[in-house]
């Protein structure tokens, strides 16, 4: 092993591109350095590598959680109840005096006792239950309750009136020739005296304004109302409203007729004139006179002219009108069983009171105000803050409460808009004292918006009270938005839903703003919201700063808190972007994220600039470590902004914040270098050089080293230093440190395995296999880590690749680790060399009588056992390395066996040829092992050539010798000079003409720096040209560029020139007068390709062809192997050929 290591060290010293990292790791980690910034002592001591990398993993984990833009699903982690909102009793409606409470109690009792109309299915139709409920609401004793009821019963009953809106009719009968009708309505209140008699056995007949009963008292003209005539339609639309006083709600009924008008006289005008007629007897005479007078413009006329056609009628008892009123389609009825009618009529009916004998009415308190007070009282009773889930209450009133409000609203003749306004005013005020569900408040605003077309009918007093409620609610909402993070935390889905509904409420308020003559907001509500958010951001930042990094503390103590502050700001910005921003932008068109980011980023930048300036003069390892983490958090904020499409971080206050952190980062990277080595040292110390588990083939220290280097690469990517020039300096130093640490680890492994006890007779060392796997894993991990250290290098980098410096480090380290792997592989296979030679010798000594497969079987069995063990211990890359090493050992062993047996038989060669093919199949393993192109290269070709030459005759070997010389022409080097010649064959004279023209760039072999060259020209192989002798040129003195221009003829047949290996050999020599001549070089030219041999000469020309430039060479190993083969032959021809060549070799220098 020591010899191999010495060889490896000598090879490493020859690396020229980038110095090996091995010589930089001679000292132990933590050794002193000439760098003035190298820390001698500090926050991290030797042996703290585990703690250091644990802290670094926490930093990386924090960075991993900040990759990409956050998802709302990740942040909304809790669905627990939202935080309680502030409750201020003073923000509700003012408290009532005792007198006002008694008056309101009387008003409520009066409403119940004098209710009229039909109760709906959702209302409580039980007077006792309603009265009992009022007793609970107002908290009166039974005696007080009974006394109040008796007092109300003695009061005068209210005056009732029926509001009728005739909206439209549809599908009426066509009475006119054009297929349409001209319908109009006549309607009035039918008193109890006009009620038709009970049906008898005679033909049924209903009351009609045109054909009424002959009995009873006259109907006052003021009780009759008429709509306009709608011409030529079967689906008339009137939308006319009427009010009728009711004398007896229990017996009176509404009667309506629809007629087809047949002339142009205004029915309304006729009714107006007939208001002056009195004393008419009976219903029939009265209404008949209406029609006649209408036709004659007030004058009597014949009754048979222009008779109107009946289209249908309705009779609706007043008592059947629902308490809440109704909007309904009524089916038209005939006036008798013989009448033919069709169609429906839409009416809106509402039963109200016009005079009430209550204290509130007598004091001029409107129904609007009394309803407001009653609703407020009921809300306070129904919704109590001490009940569970009170903040999600959506205004669900009990049956008695809903019934009371319905009765009072109808009796007070409150419109739908007024009811919506009242519910909003009371509920929004109540919400500020006892939280309600914002969805309920939003519903109230939407209900109010749906009826806002009636806003013009609101009295100014009611409009002002509504504007006051808007202002109070917006003020309350702005106070909540200032404390957005407290009341609507981003992690609480319930709170975020409440925020969404609150913003929708504010958006609705803005829709009402243009409708008020007295504007409820001093400025645009959007501006107020933005101002509240800014103020809330500043207050939140100040609280956070005082809690985590108070300015009163010293700079070093503030540093850790400032890191926490920046992390908290980053998390808040994530919440702003993923949760709050979409709500504010989509609902009220405020860019909350940009507003918040700009404000908080500027505040934290100001804080950091001041602190880094203070700490720049106190730079220690502890300060550098905390500043490093602080910078990473600040860089996260910048990257967060840049990751959003269309955002440019150059405009931020943090744009150049990296400048003051540069010294701290440099110092921290130096700490990282030492800590990495300490961590690796500790990992190797406890390593047992056994696989971590069944699925892994490396040991624990390799896993630790891989994790360390991966963390370093991740940390560099996380750092992402923005300045390219500074990034190059930092990256270069970090890459060199990483390479040194990698080589340092391999040296630790080498020392570790050297101290392991070795088992005697063990051919495969498991610790060595583990070390080899460790080195391969390290090579891949560190290579990937180095490629991940790329920095922006601009024009100095390679296109699409790594910066030049980093590329050099990567390549050098890879070469170092590859050599280390080869060294371990050689050490691993060295234990098998003896066995392999033994089995190869067994093959060579096996008698010819046994079969080839029997002779090879022991070797194949041995290889199969060892490679099965190696496959189980090594990863694929290392197994291939070992296979390649074993393959080379086998080839060398066979070559050695052939070399020791020069004069061998054909059977001997056939056996080793069989062995070679069997080994190729074994190592290829049907594509699972080494590739065939790798197996059949290098030594394999040499061995195959040796075997082939052993089978050849002497003359075939001599021909191969010249063929090998011809193959050397393909090498394009010019180390020994060039020779220009021209060769052609003269068929007529049957001779070969060889013209030596000149040479150039010869080697200077004399002491004067020149040579005295001459050229020897000869043909070969000798057995093809036995009668031909060599010829030579003149000596050209003192030149390296001699010019000869000499022509030589060789009388040879053309057939001999066409034989394989036939060539002309040029040997350039340096003539020495006092010693033997020196060898300059040689070149060979195949005769088969010259003019006259490949094609006949044209026109009998004796000089043909272009000059040929030959590069001079020295004999190579392949040529010498043929020569060695001939040396082993004992026949005369071989011995003479070898002897002649040996004489020539005396003049040759050794091939470098």
Automatic annotation (TrEMBL):
<keyword id="KW-0963">Cytoplasm</keyword>
<feature type="region of interest" description="Disordered">
    <location>
        <begin position="20"/>
        <end position="47"/>
    </location>
</feature>
<dbReference type="InterPro" id="IPR035892">
    <property type="entry name" value="C2_domain_sf"/>
</dbReference>
<dbReference type="InterPro" id="IPR014770">
    <property type="entry name" value="Munc13_1"/>
</dbReference>
<keyword id="KW-0268">Exocytosis</keyword>
<feature type="domain" description="MHD1">
    <location>
        <begin position="628"/>
        <end position="749"/>
    </location>
</feature>
<dbReference type="GO" id="GO:0006887">
    <property type="term" value="P:exocytosis"/>
</dbReference>
<dbReference type="GO" id="GO:1905413">
    <property type="term" value="P:regulation of dense core granule exocytosis"/>
</dbReference>
<dbReference type="GO" id="GO:0098793">
    <property type="term" value="C:presynapse"/>
</dbReference>
<dbReference type="GO" id="GO:0055038">
    <property type="term" value="C:recycling endosome membrane"/>
</dbReference>
<feature type="domain" description="C2">
    <location>
        <begin position="141"/>
        <end position="300"/>
    </location>
</feature>
<dbReference type="InterPro" id="IPR010439">
    <property type="entry name" value="MUN_dom"/>
</dbReference>
<dbReference type="GO" id="GO:0099503">
    <property type="term" value="C:secretory vesicle"/>
</dbReference>
<dbReference type="Pfam" id="PF06292">
    <property type="entry name" value="MUN"/>
</dbReference>
<dbReference type="GO" id="GO:0000149">
    <property type="term" value="F:SNARE binding"/>
</dbReference>
<dbReference type="InterPro" id="IPR014772">
    <property type="entry name" value="Munc13_dom-2"/>
</dbReference>
<feature type="domain" description="MHD2">
    <location>
        <begin position="853"/>
        <end position="961"/>
    </location>
</feature>
<protein>
    <submittedName>
        <fullName>BAI1-associated protein 3</fullName>
    </submittedName>
</protein>
<dbReference type="GO" id="GO:0005886">
    <property type="term" value="C:plasma membrane"/>
</dbReference>
<feature type="domain" description="C2">
    <location>
        <begin position="975"/>
        <end position="1101"/>
    </location>
</feature>
<comment type="similarity">
    <text>Belongs to the unc-13 family.</text>
</comment>
<feature type="region of interest" description="Disordered">
    <location>
        <begin position="71"/>
        <end position="91"/>
    </location>
</feature>
<dbReference type="InterPro" id="IPR052095">
    <property type="entry name" value="UNC-13_domain"/>
</dbReference>
<dbReference type="InterPro" id="IPR000008">
    <property type="entry name" value="C2_dom"/>
</dbReference>
<dbReference type="GO" id="GO:0031902">
    <property type="term" value="C:late endosome membrane"/>
</dbReference>
<keyword id="KW-0967">Endosome</keyword>
<dbReference type="GO" id="GO:0001956">
    <property type="term" value="P:positive regulation of neurotransmitter secretion"/>
</dbReference>
<dbReference type="GO" id="GO:0032588">
    <property type="term" value="C:trans-Golgi network membrane"/>
</dbReference>
<dbReference type="Pfam" id="PF00168">
    <property type="entry name" value="C2"/>
</dbReference>
């Amino acid at each position: 092993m020591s010899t191999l290591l010495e060889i490896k060290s000598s090879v490493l010293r020859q690396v020229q591109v980038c110095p090996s990292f091995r010589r930089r790791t001679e000292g132990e980690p933590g050794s002193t350095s000439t760098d003035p910034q190298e820390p001698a002592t500090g926050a991290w001591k030797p042996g703290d590598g585990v703690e250091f990398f644990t802290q670094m993993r926490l930093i990386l984990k924090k960075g991993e959680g900040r990759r990409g833009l956050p998802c709302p699903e990740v942040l909304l982690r809790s669905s627990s109840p939202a935080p309680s909102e502030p409750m201020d009793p003073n923000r509700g409606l003012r408290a009532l005096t005792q007198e006002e409470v008694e008056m309101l109690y009387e008003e409520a009792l009066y409403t119940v006792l004098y209710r009229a109309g039909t109760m709906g299915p959702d209302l409580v139709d039980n007077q006792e239950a309603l009265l009992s409920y009022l007793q609970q609401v107002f908290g009166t004793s039974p005696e007080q309750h009974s006394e109040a009821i008796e007092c109300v019963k003695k009061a005068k009953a209210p005056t009732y009136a029926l509001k009728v809106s005739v909206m439209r009719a549809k599908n009426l009968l066509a009475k006119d020739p054009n297929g349409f009708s001209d319908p109009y309505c006549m309607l009035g209140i039918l008193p109890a005296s006009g009620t038709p008699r009970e049906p008898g056995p005679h033909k049924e007949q209903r009351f009609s304004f045109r054909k009424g009963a002959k009995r009873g008292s006259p109907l006052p003209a003021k009780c009759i109302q008429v709509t306009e005539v709608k011409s030529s339609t079967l689906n008339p639309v009137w939308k006319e409203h009427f009010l009728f006083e009711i004398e007896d709600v229990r017996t009176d009924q509404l009667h309506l007729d629809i007629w087809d008008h047949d002339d142009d006289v205004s029915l309304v005008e006729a009714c107006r004139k007939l208001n002056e007629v009195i004393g008419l007897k009976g219903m029939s005479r009265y209404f008949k006179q209406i029609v006649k007078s209408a036709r004659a413009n007030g004058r009597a006329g014949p009754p048979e002219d222009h008779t109107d056609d009946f289209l249908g009628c309705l009779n609706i008892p007043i008592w059947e009108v629902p308490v809440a009123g109704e909007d309904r389609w009524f089916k038209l009825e005939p006036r008798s069983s013989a009448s033919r009618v069709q169609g429906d009529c839409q009416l809106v009916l509402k039963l109200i009171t016009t005079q009430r004998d209550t204290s509130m009415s007598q004091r001029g308190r409107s129904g609007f105000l009394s309803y407001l007070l009653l609703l407020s009282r009921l809300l306070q009773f129904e919704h109590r803050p001490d009940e569970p889930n009170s903040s999600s209450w959506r205004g669900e009133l009990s049956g008695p409460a809903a019934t009371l409000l319905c009765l009072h609203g109808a009796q007070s003749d409150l419109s739908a808009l007024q009811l919506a306004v009242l519910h909003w005013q009371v509920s929004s005020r109540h919400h500020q004292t006892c939280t309600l569900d914002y969805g309920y408040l939003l519903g109230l605003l939407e209900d109010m918006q749906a009826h806002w077309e009636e806003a013009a009918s609101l009295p100014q007093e009611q409009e002002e009270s509504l504007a006051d409620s808007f202002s109070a609610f917006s003020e309350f909402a702005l106070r909540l938005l200032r404390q957005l993070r407290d009341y609507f935390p981003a992690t609480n889905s319930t709170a975020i839903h409440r925020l969404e509904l609150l913003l929708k409420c504010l958006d609705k308020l803005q829709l009402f703003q243009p409708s008020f003559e007295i504007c409820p907001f001093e400025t645009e509500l959007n501006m107020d919201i933005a101002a509240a958010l800014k103020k809330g951001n500043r207050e939140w930042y100040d609280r956070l700063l005082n809690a985590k990094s108070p300015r009163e503390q010293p700079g070093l103590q503030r540093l850790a808190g400032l890191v926490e502050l920046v992390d908290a700001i980053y998390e808040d910005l994530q919440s702003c972007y993923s949760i709050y921003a979409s709500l504010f932008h989509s609902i009220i068109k405020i860019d909350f994220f940009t507003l918040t980011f700009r404000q908080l980023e500027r505040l934290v930048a100001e804080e950091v600039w001041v602190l880094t300036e203070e700490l720049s003069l106190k730079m220690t390892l502890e300060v550098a470590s905390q500043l490093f983490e602080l910078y990473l958090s600040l860089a996260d904020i910048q990257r967060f902004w840049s990751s959003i499409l269309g955002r440019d971080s150059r405009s931020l206050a943090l744009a150049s914040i990296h400048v003051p952190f540069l010294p701290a980062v440099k110092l921290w990277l130096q700490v990282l270098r030492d800590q990495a080595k300490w961590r690796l040292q500790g990992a190797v110390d406890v390593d047992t050089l056994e696989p971590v588990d069944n699925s892994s083939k490396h040991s624990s220290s390799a896993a630790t080293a891989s994790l360390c280097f991966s963390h370093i690469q991740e940390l560099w990517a996380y750092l992402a230093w923005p300045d390219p020039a500074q990034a190059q300096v930092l990256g270069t130093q970090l890459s060199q440190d990483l390479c040194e640490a990698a080589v340092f680890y391999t040296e630790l492994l080498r020392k570790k395995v050297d101290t392991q006890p070795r088992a005697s007779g063990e051919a495969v060392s498991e610790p060595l296999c583990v070390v080899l796997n460790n080195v391969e894993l390290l090579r891949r991990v560190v290579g990937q880590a180095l490629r991940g250290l790329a920095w922006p290098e601009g024009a100095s980098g390679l296109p699409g690749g790594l910066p030049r410096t980093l590329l050099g480090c990567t390549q050098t380290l890879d070469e170092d680790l590859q050599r280390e792997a080869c060294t371990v592989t050689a050490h691993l296979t060295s234990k098998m060399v003896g066995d392999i030679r033994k089995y190869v010798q067994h093959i060579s000594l096996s008698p010819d009588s046994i079969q080839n497969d029997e002779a090879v079987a022991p070797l194949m069995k041995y290889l199969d056992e060892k490679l099965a063990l190696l496959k189980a211990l090594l990863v694929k890359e290392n197994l291939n390395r070992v296979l390649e090493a074993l393959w080379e050992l086998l080839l060398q062993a066979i070559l050695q066996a052939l070399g020791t047996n020069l004069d061998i038989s054909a059977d001997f060669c056939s056996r080793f040829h069989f062995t070679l093919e069997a080994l190729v199949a074994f190592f290829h393993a049907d594509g699972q092992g080494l590739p065939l192109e790798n197996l059949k290269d290098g030594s394999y070709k040499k061995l195959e050539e040796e075997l082939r030459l052993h089978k050849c005759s002497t003359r075939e070997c001599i021909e191969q010798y010249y063929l090998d010389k011809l193959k050397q022409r393909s090498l394009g080097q010019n180390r020994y000079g060039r020779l220009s010649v021209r060769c052609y064959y003269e068929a007529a004279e049957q001779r070969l003409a060889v013209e030596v023209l000149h040479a150039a760039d010869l080697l200077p072999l004399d002491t004067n720096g020149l040579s005295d060259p001459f050229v020897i020209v000869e043909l070969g192989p000798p057995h093809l040209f036995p009668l031909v002798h060599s010829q030579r040129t003149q000596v050209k003195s003192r030149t390296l560029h001699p010019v000869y221009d000499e022509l030589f003829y060789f009388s040879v047949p053309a057939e001999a020139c066409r034989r394989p290996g036939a060539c002309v050999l040029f040997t350039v020599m340096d003539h020495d007068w006092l010693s033997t001549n020196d060898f300059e070089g040689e070149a060979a030219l195949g005769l088969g390709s010259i003019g006259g041999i490949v094609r006949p000469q044209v026109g009998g020309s004796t000089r043909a062809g272009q000059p040929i430039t030959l590069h001079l060479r020295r004999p190579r190993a392949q040529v010498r192997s043929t020569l060695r083969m001939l040396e082993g032959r004992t026949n005369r021809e071989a011995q003479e050929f070898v002897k002649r060549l040996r004489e020539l070799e005396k003049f040759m220098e050794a091939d470098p």
